[in-house]
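Q: Convert this sequence to structure tokens.
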Amino acid sequence: MLARQPQTPVSRIAAALVDIQPTPRDQWPRWASVLAEYATTEDAGIGDVIHRLAGKPGVWFEWTTAALGIPCNCPDRRARFNKQFPLK
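A:
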């Protein structure tokens, strides 16, 4: 019997994005609409806006992840928000 291979970060993100459909702009929650006001032409979706506004994770997230023992899943969340709330 073959052992199941662990998912790579890319395959995990791809698997999570399969079921997500873009939400029409007029049905976005208020927080997403507010963040859209801060979008630039380079942002593909709300995930990019959040990433740009929050800045790079850096030492704080590394420390928090180590202290709590859980990953932040920022790339997954960013990709999910970009697909669910696209700007283009």
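Residues 27-84 form one domain.
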